[in-house]
Amino acid sequence: MRTTRGGDATAARVNATPHDGDFTAYVRARGRDWERYAYALTGDPHQAQDVLQTVLLKMYRRWRRITEIEAPDAYVRRMVTHAYLDTRRARSATEVPVAVVPDTPSPEIDPAERVVDRDELAQALAVLSPHQRAVLVLRHLDGLDDETIAAVLGCSVGTVRSHASRGRERFRLRLSTDQGDRG
Amino acid sequence: MNTDDLLTRAIADLGARAPHDPDLAGTIRRRSRWRIMVAAAPIAAALAVLAVIVTVIAARGSATDHPATAPSACAPVSTAVLPTWARDGFSDPEPSMPYVTSRSGHLVAIIFGDPLSSPEAPDHGNKILWVSNAAGGSGDLVITGTREGDGETMTTTLPGGPGPSLVDMPGPGCWHLELAWGSIRDSIDLRYVSP
């Protein structure tokens, strides 16, 4: 399953004018997506809100200048991502070596089991390094290709693929551990 | 479900649980206004202090450049009981009259024609009864007047010294009168109004 938003320069794009109405229209069109993005990155409601509002506040006050040189989506994505990375720079993810790869969940899982799964998935995301998480969120939530992700992060495509690969493996290993504990 | 699908699901599930602000644009606008207010508050306070300082300095400068008009020497004429030595001729033992006391305190000008007017009011003359208890007065009472403000002068003589008189002035205003009567030198200020 891959979610694509594909709205960078299409429906959500509004005219680059300094008017308040343009900003309001943009936020109404894209605000919920950015709330999801910020929360998927940070995993913390307060931090997500703070990061997103800080970026949108800058955007609101410099709407004309920003939109003259950059698509609003590109600006918000880049700024939110870097704000998240800045706040997490001091932290480091911990490798979690595991030996068991999780089984595929049953399609007829009960609701309680689903909640447990969801928590496990969230916890598995939490073990990713900030850059790994950013790459995987950009790839799996935004549906961006590696070149675009590299542009967002300001790194090479190779670095993006490295983060993606290591992050994916770390995520998988964490789920294996959880599955082993439950089993 | 492979790892990529699990990743997509995990991230999508997490995103779906993101807190939602239904008025996100309004929140941003309010935060912007608040930031502007907070940023402007010290400037506004500094400007207010500056305005007060400028006002004070301007007020001081104004006071220096344009001194306030000195209070007139002519106080309003008050009606009061006459001094004992000025009551001769009054039937009331404690007559109350509008009067002005001279600088020495030994002469009063009892104003019968209150208010004194220049030119003379159509309904009453500028009748003044001069009464003195000073020793050494003799002969005519010579009055030399100077009007406050423009310095216009006048001179008149009351034959026989203090007593009833009609004293007219060249114009309304506060008149400073130098009184000379024998060896006595005194002064008094009288206000004449436009009728």
Structure description:
The complex is a heterodimer of chains A (183) and B (195). Chain A has 183 residues and is mostly helical. Chain A is 68% helix and 0% strand. Chain A is built from 8 helices and no strands. Chain A has helices at 20-42, 45-61, 63-69, 72-88, 111-126, 130-140, 146-153, 157-182. By secondary structure, chain B is of the alpha+beta class. Chain B has helices spanning 3-16, 24-65, and strands spanning 78-81, 96-101, 107-111, 127-132, 141-147, 153-158, 164-166, 173-181, 184-192. Chain B has a 5-stranded antiparallel sheet, with no helix packed on it. The longest helix of chain B is centred in the N-terminal third of the chain and has 42 residues, at 24-65. The A-B interface holds A 1-3, 20, 23-24, 27-28, 31-32, 35-40, 43, 45, 48-49, 53, 56-57, 60-61, 104-105, 118, 121-122, 124-125, 136-137, 140-141, 168, 171-172, 175 and B 1-21, 24-25, 27-29, 31-32, 35.
- What average pLDDT do the residues of chain A reach? 78
Strand content of chain A: under 5%
Sheet with the most strands: spatial strand order of chain B = 1-2-3-4-7
Please give the count of helices of chain A. Answer: 8
Question: What's the helix and strand layout?
Answer:
The complex is a heterodimer of chains A (183) and B (195).
Chain A (H helix, E strand, L loop, with lengths): L19 H23 L2 H17 L1 H7 L2 H17 L22 H16 L3 H11 L5 H8 L3 H26 L1
Chain B lengths: L2 H14 L7 H42 L12 E4 L14 E6 L5 E5 L15 E6 L8 E7 L5 E6 L5 E3 L6 E9 L2 E9 L3
Antiparallel strand pairs in B: 1-2, 2-3, 3-4, 4-7, 5-6, 5-8, 8-9
